[in-house]
Design brief:
Blueprint: H1 13-29, H2 33-52, H3 56-113, H4 120-131, H5 135-148, H6 161-187, H7 191-194, H8 198-219, H9 227-237, H10 246-271, E1 277-278, E2 283-284, H11 293-303
Antiparallel strand pairs: 1-2
Helix pairs in contact: 1-2, 1-3, 2-3, 3-5, 4-5, 6-8, 6-10, 8-9, 8-11
């Protein structure tokens, strides 16, 4: 029978009895059965004395002892709360240890699948640290060991259609700029045509146009290049003709080459694309294996005349 049921509901001790019953119940649920039963038995004995003795002194002493026992029940309830908190912390720690062990197990298995053998002594050391609750120390050891192992080969980057288009146009623009620079260096911006060098004349006529197309596509890869855009780019890109300064033309080509290189770097940084262009040859890795047919065809045409 609960302590409170032994007391009159209108008595001052009734509320204390209810609280003692609650403390005793919590203590039993927490595994403190002996302490709870001892307190309960003492409380019932004191209630019996108060209710059945006519000696005022004995009754007063029993009432004081009951109040003291009530104080002990509060202490016991606090112990139960502290015990439960420790249990929860232990459960959290155990869950963390298990999760960490599972994580390391998966990482070590991945390493083994890649052909990496980890010293069993190391894994045992990590297990020992986890077993004693030293999760942070175990993680340091595991991370250091895994960091020291050779990493798996990086998956080869697969170029998208947009990447390929941009790369080819950028390489073409650099190639045409390089060829235009060679022509200007050799024959100037107009003299070659006037002096009867048809091959250089053809290049001076065609290269700026090809350059303009490639450059326009590099500037806006997704759009369709219009003739008006090409004409605008061609007009302000590299000055050629009778009144053009050779030095200015060379400087313009050089600035253009640097501009293309910068646009290639920006594209790679913004998209993560992984490709390389041989800026000296003006070709991609794939194009480097193929002959440059366009300018060769022009040369062959004028040689045959």
């Amino acid at each position: 029978m609960p302590i409170s049921e032994l007391l009159r509901k209108d008595s001052p001790a009734y509320v204390d009895g209810l609280k003692m019953d609650k403390a005793i119940q919590l203590a039993k649920e927490a595994g403190m059965e002996n302490e709870a039963m001892a307190l309960e038995m003492s409380a019932k004995q004191l209630i019996n004395v108060v209710q059945n003795t006519n000696d005022k002194k004995v009754r007063a002493e029993a009432e004081r002892n009951f109040k003291s026992l009530f104080g002990k029940s509060i202490e016991m309830q606090n112990q139960v709360a502290s015990f439960r908190n420790r249990q929860q912390e232990d459960q959290k720690k155990a869950a963390l240890i298990q999760a960490t062990a599972n994580e390391f197990g998966a990482k070590f298995k991945q390493a083994q699948d890649r052909g990496i053998n980890i010293d069993p002594k190391v894994t045992q050391s990590i297990s020992n640290l986890l077993g004693t609750g030293q999760v942070d120390e175990a993680r340091k050891v595991a991370d250091n060991i895994l960091a020291a192992q050779p990493q798996a080969d990086k998956e080869e980057y697969k170029k998208s259609a947009a990447d390929l288009t941009f790369e080819q146009n950028a390489a073409s623009a650099i190639r045409y700029a390089n060829q235009l620079s060679d022509v200007i260096e050799k024959d100037g911006t107009w003299e070659s045509a006037r002096l009867g060098n048809p091959e250089s004349a053809a290049k001076l006529g065609q290269l700026p146009y090809q350059l303009a197309i490639s450059y326009a596509k590099v500037v806006d890869p997704a759009s369709v290049v219009r003739e008006s855009e090409v004409e605008m780019v061609q007009k302000y890109m590299v000055p050629t003709g009778f009144f053009a300064s050779e030095d200015k033309a060379k400087a313009a080509v050089k600035n253009f080459q640097e501009d293309i290189k910068e646009k290639v770097n920006v594209y790679k940084q913004s998209t993560g694309a992984d490709f390389s262009i041989d800026f000296d040859a003006g070709k991609t890795k794939e194009e480097d294996k193929k002959p440059d047919k366009q300018i060769d065809q022009i040369n062959s045409y004028y040689r045959s005349r």
